[in-house]
Amino acid sequence: MRLLLALLLGAVLLGGEAEPALPAADLLQRQALAYAQAQAQGREGTYTFKVLGTPVLPRPPKGELVFEPARLSRAELSGRFYVTFNAFAEGRVLGMVRVDLEGAWTGRLLRARTAQPRKAVPEPAQWEAFDFSGIPPAGALKDLPAGFRLRGPVAPGHILVRTDLEAIPLVNIGDPVRLEMVSGDLSVTVDAVARSGGAVGEKVRLEMPSTHRMVQAVVTGPGEARVQWAGSK
């Protein structure tokens, strides 16, 4: 990791004549910018970063300060976040310091062409990709995911985010359900009736018509569910 930072910092500093030695705080800020840019590599779109304030550094008893990145405060690199570093002097750990950054993102997002009602399934013709530069809304989406519908109504121009969507239920209250009951190597399929709804991977309550016993099972497909069965208790 130290070698990676040295290479990244070298790429920033190379060119022209050698520069005079930087103060430790300035050096750390450059390292933080280089580290953030390295984390952005391979992600969709492009990122730019700026430092939000001068970091507070420990006073070494002797020797020069050396910094090693520890972690990012969050995975999302747009908006405000910080990078923490371990500070060393002559091989001794002096503590941790942080550099506050703000990231801006440039790429393409989705926004609504027309108003859409609650529970509508998003169709490609109702949404358009547009160029965005800045700090996108939290959870902004770049593509329409399959198997989801709108949780609430949206207005024209609304930028689509993850919280706008909910999984489309494949089992609804009152639906007949083919229930696969599995116990070890044995698998039995029976008919049941849904008493709650759910999407793939969600749990639903099912009623066994013959006994009226309630069973909780996981939705596996349209009108289908599965439960690990340990027998009667």
Helix content: 10-25%
Question: For the report, how would you describe the main beta sheet?
Answer: 5 strands, antiparallel
Shape: elongated
Number of strands: 12
**End-to-end distance, in Å?**
56 Å
| Succession of helices and strands | HHEEEEEEEEEEEE
Number of helices: 2
Q: What name does the CATH topology of the largest domain carry?
A: Thiol Ester Dehydrase, Chain A
Count of domains: 3
CATH class group of the largest domain:
Alpha Beta
Computed Rg? 27 Å
In the CATH classification, which architecture of the largest domain applies?
Roll
Mean pLDDT metric: 89
**Helices and strands: which structural class?**
mainly beta
> What low-confidence regions span 5 or more consecutive residues with pLDDT below 50?
1-16
Percent in strands: 35-45%
Which helices and strands appear, and what pairs or packs with what?
Layout: H1 2-13, H2 24-40, E1 46-51, E2 65-72, E3 79-89, E4 92-112, E5 127-134, E6 148-150, E7 165-167, E8 176-183, E9 186-194, E10 203-208, E11 213-221, E12 224-228
Parallel strand pairs: 8-12
Antiparallel strand pairs: 1-4, 2-3, 3-4, 4-5, 6-7, 8-9, 9-10, 10-11, 11-12
Helix pairs in contact: 1-2
Briefly summarize what is shown:
By secondary structure, this protein is mainly β. It is 12% helix and 42% strand.
Could you explain how this protein is built, in words?
The chain is mainly beta and 233 residues long. The protein has three domains: 2-103, Thiol Ester Dehydrase, Chain A; 106-167, Type Iii Antifreeze Protein Isoform Hplc 12; 176-228, SH3 type barrels (Roll). It is 12% helix and 42% strand. The chain has helices at 2-13, 24-40, and strands spanning 46-51, 65-72, 79-89, 92-112, 127-134, 148-150, 165-167, 176-183, 186-194, 203-208, 213-221, 224-228. The strands form three sheets. Strands 1, 2, 3, 4 and 5 form a five-stranded antiparallel beta sheet that branches. A five-stranded mixed barrel has the order 8-9-10-11-12. A two-stranded antiparallel sheet has the order 6-7. A hairpin with a 2-residue loop joins strand 3 (79-89) and strand 4. Helix 1 packs across helix 2. The longest helix is centred in the first third of the chain and has 17 residues, at 24-40. The chain starts with a helix and ends in a 5-residue tail after the last strand.
